[in-house]
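Inverse folding, one chain.
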C-alpha cells in the first residue's frame, strides 16, 4: 500500500530532487560525507557534469550508474 501511495502522490522526480538537495548539504565550510546508494551517486554525477550536458542527460531514461555514464559520453 505504501508503494502505491507513493506512486500516486509523489512526483516522479521526488527522489532525484531530494538526492540533489542532500548532495548540496554542507556543515559550515565542509561537505558532509555519506555512504550513498546508487541513485544518490547518479545525482552527484549529474551535478558534476557540465550543465549543458547534464540537461540533455537528465531527459533520457536511465536506471543504473553505468547507463548514465554511457549517456553522458554520447552527449559529450
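Residues assigned per position:
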Amino acid at each position: 500500500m505504501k508503494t502505491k501511495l507513493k506512486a500516486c502522490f509523489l512526483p516522479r522526480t521526488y527522489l532525484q530532487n531530494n538526492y540533489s538537495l542532500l548532495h548540496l548539504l554542507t556543515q559550515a565550510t565542509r561537505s558532509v560525507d555519506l555512504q550513498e546508494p546508487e541513485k544518490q551517486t547518479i545525482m552527484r554525477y549529474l551535478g558534476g557534469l557540465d550543465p549543458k550536458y547534464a540537461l540533455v542527460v537528465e531527459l533520457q531514461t536511465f536506471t543504473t550508474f553505468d547507463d548514465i555514464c554511457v549517456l553522458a559520453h554520447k552527449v559529450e
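The first strand starts at residue 26 and ends at 27. The chain has one domain: 2-75.
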